[in-house]
Amino acid sequence: MLETDSDSLLQEWLTEQLQATTLRRDLLNEADLRRDSQTFLNALTQAVQVSPALDIDGAQWQEVKAVLAALSKNRATYGFTSSEVATFVFSLKQPLFQRIAAALKESPEKLQSELWSVTVLLDQLGLYTLEVYQRSREDIILRQRQELLELSTPVVKVWDGVVALPLIGTLDSERTQVVMESLLQRIVETESTIAIIDITGVPTVDTLVAQHLLRTVAAARLMGADCIISGIRPQIAQTIVHLGIDLSGVTTKASFADAIGLALTRSGFQVTRQVSRARTP
Amino acid sequence: MERIPILKLGDCLIISLQIDLHDRLALAMQDDLANMVVKTGARGVLIDISGLDMVDSFIGRILGNVATLCRVLDAETVIVGMQPAVAITLVELGVTWDNVRTALNVERGMAFLRLHLDASQAMQTAPEENHDDADAGE
Q1: Which residues of B touch A181 (CB under 8 A)?
Q2: Quick one: fold of B6-119?
Q3: Tell me, what's the ipTM?
Q4: Which of A36, A148, B75, B88 has the greatest number of beta carbons closer than 10 A?
């Protein structure tokens, strides 16, 4: 039946989808919807022809599942909600049921069993679509998390032989690893002897964060670079003293400006203000 | 048995580790270096570990020992060219190397050694000069 009546079925299904209030016209145009629906119907028709078994783990359903997976992934990327994606499959029920009802008017028992099997089948396909949708969303979140991690540790070259790492946000173990690696990597690339770690944007410094900082400093020292920790706010300084954290082996400065000044002095530069000609008598 | 070559450059010794050290090789290097320092009377030792991709706690300790050993024999040691991964590993292992000098690359390491040797030489000769001056004054 899917085969004989496919064109009008497609048309009816499309109308159904287009009328639905959940359709996102801003994200999907009619031509795309038609193409998606057509592809899915074709795959479905083929699968049913091969064998009418209702277990979607069967070999003949591979193609249908592939079509749905692609569609689901695509829509997940474009920002559809999960129910919007699932509705694509579920909305096929209405036109399909009408057809089955019309064809099997004479034998109510057969009608009921047919309807039941179609419902089971479409529900399975819909759930599968949701599963793929969820997985794609998780992938997207994971990727964004990774990108955020890398973005949040920009190592800036301040001067010849001086790099700076402005830290923003709380340091956890995973982030520290990324921070450490990118800082050390940049030290090697730029051949810098001084690295400034600025913690102005770190809201709290507890023992764990301090330990991470000290480890980064130790690693840099092993490679032959000195670290200066700057941007220690009064409250954080109090916390550090209160917690009894030993920062005596590390050069610390209150502000980033002080740290840059020290770094330049240590690398043998001298910064002087140029007296403007107007002021000189 | 393979050995790590030790090169002599003026009053400095240079070791470049191009392959990952296994334990026996590291011990052999320690022995050879001690002998070489005594034989040549070297005042500075530069160990380039830029070719080292991985270290374990034993190698970490051996490198620290080598530096201490050279200090005892009155030679300043500088370890140069450590890869970030190696530095992270050593820190994770808790190796501190309190008395070891490090530098980013061979060039900076040699510059440091030169400076250090010149300074120590100046220190040794300075009192004599003062003495000479005093003699001349009289």
Answers
A1: 84, 88
A2: Transcription Regulator spoIIAA (3.30.750)
A3: 0.73
A4: B75
